[in-house]
Specification:
Structural class: alpha/beta
CATH topology of the largest domain: Rossmann fold
CATH class of the largest domain: Alpha Beta
Shape: elongated
Strand order of the largest sheet: 12-17-16-13-15-14
Number of helices: 24
């Protein structure tokens, strides 16, 4: 029986082995004419096996676990009752975590250290005395397994300390004759969490090695072993984990070949673990009601995680290491007027670097902690880090980001449109300063049509190489720089934005910081790209350029041999078309503006018609994106049509309206109107 077979019609394919056994039991009981509910007596075992097998806790697996957990807590199986007792688990708290970290390791310990027979006998035991004896034996074997695992782990850390060149490998491949083959997989998983790279451990005996491999996202372990199969005796597994055997004298060649393969397929961003939050929350919003509402989503587990919340700039009032070897972190956390206990499993190393009153960003899951009959809220901290600071190396942009509520409308207008309008106001056409690509050799990466452009951008920026990101408008530079600072805290202080509306001193400072390496990523617009020619190892054209010259400027920022990434999508074309409406005002827009002026003229209020006044009236009429340059250009068009005149310029300028013309004026008579519409059509 195998639901994964291509010819199997069973709809759910991810059942654990115990789930398949449960389906067989259901069929046999039905065939024997038994009551339809008899099979539910086996739900405790099915639940235990499903969690222990680390299958996705989705679909039928989740149903089995949801209905199996209450039966497991009050199981009639003598062996399970004894195992729950020696594991010191409270029946009322039975959940996937208690099963995965309490019951499953003890059952698995027998097979890892010696023989799996004691675990099988425990589950089949029919009297309490035998069950307790077997449970105690499994508990002892688990402690032995933990001791062996700890010894192997410490030996490997010592090996890496003594051979730092090995620790720098993209893939860690280590071997020893003293390792127990039953624990190297667990140790490999721990090392992956520490070193954030694939780890392969090999237990040697009689000239042959049995290996266990664990990987990171982005590096398919089974494919990697397939690439090296000529050096292996056997192998099997999947993307994240695998097992293999190898002759001892071929291990060094295997390590070298695997790292060469990783050099071609494994990028720096693949080894950086990004914590994906479901949302940010103020700590004052954490309550018992919230915890109870989140509990409705249980059971949670593998491939079905619970909501992970984030809190910025929480204060650490106290912290200390707890548990065996101070492996876990106990904290007292405060944010605003709320104070909670926190526990971070396997985060004990932070105790040495966290000072009292340190501010940290938290990723956590709120829950209830029961102790001595008292119940209180506790935050299970999954990860923590220094607060992301939204500034460049010289903090020259901090004040601007603090005023995001008053961002000028012009920053939302595409730079191409804005510069064209300003050149019109200066009675000059847009110069074509860069009209061709310099021809430097580069690598083209066509990533157009991405579903997650910001996420892909974060991954590339994580490499730490000099990176230029070209966007269409000033506000987008701010938005993306802001995103990178929040999404990738390790880039804090190394990301900056710059655009054509930035102050000259600010532009010069940012370009200098980028040139000397203080800033690794700069998000900018095409007009600024000319100052960054051949500065970037990797350039990303994030938005569809409005003109050939803009594309050329982006290409020319790449150093010879660097990479050019195209991120824009077909949707950008429609956005550009809509934005060009701001470049060339249509008849309706001009007519609305003219009516406002005529109305104020009739009220003898034309003297108060400043540009700001007109903008306010136009926005009230529904033109929300009108801005200063657009109004000034429209006034110029109306002046060319001899409908008004502008007496004086700047703050002292005033408008005078001519009498309404007898005949309707053709807009194409205005030179500015013709020029802008020709650009729009191009």
């Amino acid at each position: 029986m195998n639901p994964k077979r291509p010819d199997c019609k069973y709809p759910y394919k991810d059942l654990a082995g115990v789930g398949v056994a449960l389906k067989l039991a259901q069929a046999l009981l039905e065939e024997a004419g038994m009551d339809n509910l008899v099979w539910q007596e086996y739900l405790d075992l099915a639940c235990l096996g499903t969690i222990a097998d680390i299958v996705p806790l989705q679909g039928e697996n989740r149903i089995i676990v949801k209905h199996g957990l209450p039966r497991l807590a009050r199981t009639k199986n003598a062996g399970l009752q004894a195992l729950i007792a020696v594991s010191e688990l409270a029946k009322e708290e039975m959940g996937p975590r208690q099963v995965a970290f309490g019951l499953a390791p003890r059952l698995n310990a027998a097979g890892r250290v010696k023989s799996p027979d004691p675990a099988l006998k425990l589950l089949l035991a029919d009297n309490t005395a035998e069950a307790w004896t077997l449970a105690a034996e499994l508990n002892r074997l688990n402690q032995e397994r933990q001791k062996i695992e700890s010894e192997v782990f410490e030996e490997i850390k010592k090996m890496l300390d003594e051979h730092p060149e090995t620790a720098e490998d993209r893939v860690l491949v280590l071997a020893s004759p003293g390792w127990h083959v039953g624990v190297i997989g667990i140790v490999a998983s721990r090392l992956v969490n520490i070193y954030t790279r694939p780890v392969l451990l090999i237990a040697l005996q009689d000239g042959e090695g049995k290996g266990s491999a664990r990987s990171v996202p982005g590096f398919h372990m089974h494919q990697a072993l397939s690439h090296c199969q000529a050096l292996l005796l056997s192998y099997g597994g999947h993307a994240s984990a695998a097992g293999f055997s190898i002759e001892e004298d071929r291990i060094e060649d295997f390590r070298r070949e695997l790292n060469l393969y990783a050099g071609e397929t494994l990028h720096n961003e693949d080894t950086n673990v990004l914590v994906e939050l479901d949302g940010f929350i103020n700590m004052e919003q954490v309550s018992e009601k919230l915890v109870n509402e989140l509990d409705l989503l249980r059971p949670i587990g593998h491939h079905n995680p619970g909501p992970l919340l984030g809190c910025r700039q929480a204060t650490v009032l106290k912290c200390r290491g707890v548990g065996r070897g101070a492996a876990h972190l106990k904290m007292l956390l405060q944010s605003q007027n709320a104070t909670f206990d926190g526990i971070g499993f396997n985060l004990g190393a932070y105790a040495e670097v966290l000072a009292t009153a340190e501010e940290v960003d938290l990723a956590f899951v709120p829950g209830m902690n029961e102790y001595n009959g008292r119940s209180s809220i506790q935050l299970e901290v999954k990860e923590l880090g220094m607060p992301a600071v939204l500034e460049t190396a010289e903090a020259i942009q901090t004040s601007f980001l603090r005023k995001m509520d008053s961002v000028p409308t012009e920053l939302f207008i595409p730079e191409f449109v804005l510069l064209q309008l300003r050149y019109v106001l200066q009675n000059a056409e847009m110069p074509g300063q860069v009209d061709k690509i310099t021809g430097a050799p580069l690598k083209l990466e066509d990533w157009r049509g991405l579903d997650d452009r910001p996420g892909a951008l974060a991954g590339i920026a994580l490499r730490g190489e000099p990176t230029v990101v070209i966007t269409s408008c000033a506000y987008r530079t701010i938005e993306l720089a802001h995103f990178l600072q929040l999404a990738v805290p390790s880039l804090a202080g190394r990301v900056a934005f710059c655009h054509s509306s930035s102050q000259e001193a600010e532009k010069d400072g940012i370009v200098q910081c980028f040139s000397d390496g203080t800033i690794s990523t700069i998000v900018t617009t095409p007009a600024m790209a000319g100052d960054l020619a051949q500065h970037a190892v990797q350039t990303i054209i994030y938005d569809l350029p409005y003109a050939h010259e803009a594309f050329c400027r982006g290409v020319n920022t790449v150093r010879p041999g660097g990479s050019l990434y195209l991120f824009f999508s077909p949707d950008d074309l429609q956005e550009n078309r809509e934005a060009l409406g701001n470049l060339a005002p249509d008849r309706e827009f001009l007519a609305s503006l003219y009516r406002i002026l005529r109305r104020e003229h009739n009220k003898e209020n034309l003297g108060n018609c400043t540009v700001e006044f007109i903008i306010g009236r136009m926005r009230a009429a529904g033109y929300q994106w009108v801005h200063h340059d657009m109004v000034r250009v429209c006034l110029g068009i109306l002046e060319e049509l001899e409908l008004l005149t502008v007496k004086g310029r700047g703050q002292g300028g005033r408008l005078e309206l001519y009498p309404p013309p007898r005949h309707k004026r053709e807009l194409m008579e205005a030179k500015t109107y013709r020029y802008l519409h020709r650009l729009k059509d191009q």
